[in-house]
Design brief:
Elements lengths: L1 H20 L3 E7 L5 E8 L19 E7 L7 E8 L4 E8 H4 L1 E4 L1
């Protein structure tokens, strides 16, 4: 009986840990630049390719912020980001721990 309870407790702990790691990742994206962000891409650092444009035809105006939700189900916090601005500038940043940062600001 004791082994059964221990096994159940271990299984529950393992399931809980798996679920907490694979949860959606949310962070705040802030635009403090002088130009609107017209395209925004987030990809796991180990992927080597950019995922779909999260702006989907929209934009993030200067001095505004939005919540970004990454629901890819991956057990990682480390992502690369890319933003294209209306003025033609592109910013790329690599190896960001978005779980730790909680937000990212373009200046």
């Amino acid at each position: 009986m004791k082994n059964c309870i221990t096994t159940m407790a271990f299984t529950f702990s393992l399931l809980w840990a798996t679920n907490s790691v694979a949860e959606d990742l949310e962070f705040l994206l802030v635009n403090e630049s002088n130009s609107p962000v017209v395209a925004f891409y987030v990809s796991p650092s180990n992927s080597g390719v950019w995922e779909s444009d999260l702006m989907e035809g929209g934009f993030l105006a200067p001095n505004y912020e939005i919540d970004v939700l990454i629901g890819d189900g991956l057990a990682t916090c480390v992502y690369d980001i890319r933003a294209d601005f209306k003025d033609g500038e592109t910013v790329e940043d690599y190896g960001l721990d978005l779980c730790e940062l909680g937000s990212y600001t373009f200046e």
